[in-house]
Design a protein that fits this description.
Number of helices: 4
Number of strands: 5
Helix content: 25-40%
CATH topology: Hypothetical upf0131 protein ytfp
Order of helices and strands: EHEEHEEHH
CATH class: Alpha Beta
Mean pLDDT: 95
Low-confidence stretches: none
Largest sheet: 5 strands, mixed, barrel
CATH superfamily: Gamma-glutamyl cyclotransferase-like
Strand content: 35-45%
């Protein structure tokens, strides 16, 4: 069982639960030593190591290996899994996070806008991206 720190589209339960095919348990969390950035020409964010910074998000609790594989497939090759420690209301927890590795030239100099994603992209992800991702994942597995 693995905890996953999320900070972008997976903050929305419609997306995380929809991808994993189950209702996930989560709690709010803060990751220190990283910063979140909007990506150029994308509607999803990235985190990168960044001294004296922190990212607020959620921790998805106790995911099975199958869910981790599915989330890794969803995130793609632009990210790598990194072990992290996050602060929650119930204490410090070990987790993994998907950290951007595709190059800083793709980062905007602004934080990702959760509300903009919610109003402009959430419905498309829920109705199109999630079903297509699950279909492709289970076809290639």
């Amino acid at each position: 069982m693995t905890n996953v720190f999320v900070y972008g589209s997976l903050l929305f339960s419609e997306i995380a639960d929809g991808l994993c095919g189950q209702t996930l348990t989560s709690e709010y969390a803060t990751l220190r030593g990283f910063s979140r950035f909007a990506l150029k020409e994308a509607d999803y964010p990235a985190i990168v190591p960044y001294k004296n910074a922190e990212v607020t998000g959620k921790i998805l609790l106790n995911l099975e290996d199958e869910a981790i594989k599915l989330l890794t497939f969803y995130e793609g090759d632009e990210y790598e899994i990194a072990p992290v420690k996050v602060k929650t209301n119930s204490g410090i927890k070990n987790a993994i996070a998907f950290v951007w590795i595709a190059g800083n030239e793709f980062l905007e100099d602004v934080d990702w806008d959760t509300e903009q994603f919610k109003s402009e992209s959430l419905e498309f992800y829920r109705d199109e991206i999630i079903p297509a991702t699950r279909k492709e994942f289970y076809r290639t597995e």
